[in-house]
Specification:
The protein has 246 residues and is an alpha+beta fold. The protein has helices at 42-52, 82-87, 99-109, 114-123, 152-156, 235-245, and strands spanning 3-4, 12-17, 22-27, 30-35, 60-61, 66-71, 77-81, 137-139, 163-172, 178-188, 192-203, 207-218, 224-234. The chain is globular, with a radius of gyration of 20 Å. This is TIP41-domain-containing protein.
């Protein structure tokens, strides 16, 4: 476990465990871990489907991947992973429930024949776009509402990057009708750490959707700040902007 120093940075240690595809950094009272492993096999997929009660998982489901931030003194922890993300996908949708998603599904099914449409109505009583508003899970701590915001000026400073990683949690091409991806990026600076957790959805000729969770930790404070943002735009509106820019 190498020990490193950087200008204006407390002593820190990076680590890596290739046996379980984990690596990370320990700095002060904080331990940050990322894992980038293989996709689930059929047995693991079946077990997850049975546990979560969802008809289908994304094509590329990295069920072991995660980013975890832990305070080694208090034991408090924040983590984001693929399983928790899928738990946030809506299932058992009823007719006319969540009209945006229903409208998308109808338009998607319109490209299939009638028999296939009826089949999908039975087999897909869930949000088939895998849209998730995952914000991470807290252990041994609590979330409270605050007016304090992430100071973006601090994030724009050119501080040394002590550790960086990007973790893909899942990806699906939605039967060639677009793409749905969930990934997380983390960078660690001498004074803190920043996580960007992003779900991106593109349905061809229908819409774009982005759900983002931003986590900011300053090492000299005993808490993390979390901000969530969701944006959605019809596909045609995006094309108009794009053509205008051209």
């Amino acid at each position: 476990m190498p020990t490193n120093t950087a200008a204006n940075a407390p002593e820190y240690k990076t680590f890596e465990n290739k046996n379980i595809s984990e690596k990370g950094i320990i700095i002060g009272d904080w331990k940050i871990t990322t894992r980038k492993d293989r996709i689930f096999n059929s047995e693991e997929i079946d077990k997850t489907l049975d546990e979560i009660k969802i008809p289908q998982l994304p094509e590329m489901f990295f069920g072991y991947n995660h980013i975890t931030i832990e305070n080694t003194t208090t034991g408090s922890k924040w983590t984001c992973n693929s399983i928790d993300a899928i738990r946030q996908v809506q299932i058992n949708l009823k007719e006319n429930e969540n009209w945006i998603k229903v409208a998308v599904a109808d338009k998607w099914n319109a490209s299939r024949n009638k028999e296939e449409e009826e089949k999908k109505k039975i087999q897909r009583p869930y949000d088939w776009t895998f849209s998730t508003d995952i914000r991470g899970r807290i252990e041994n701590g609590e979330a409270v509402v605050t007016k304090e915001q992430i100071d973006m000026r601090k994030l724009m400073r050119r501080d040394p990057i002590l550790f960086f990683d990007q973790v893909i949690l899942f990806e699906d091409e939605l039967a060639d009708n677009g793409i749905a991806t969930l990934d997380a990026k983390i960078r660690v600076m001498p004074t803190g750490a920043f996580v960007l957790l992003r779900f991106f959805l593109r349905i061809e000729n229908v819409l774009f959707r982005v759900n983002e969770t931003r986590i900011y930790l300053e090492f000299d404070k005993g808490y993390m700040l979390s901000e969530y943002l969701s944006r959605e735009q019809p596909f045609d509106d995006f094309k108009k902007v794009y053509y205008f820019l051209l």
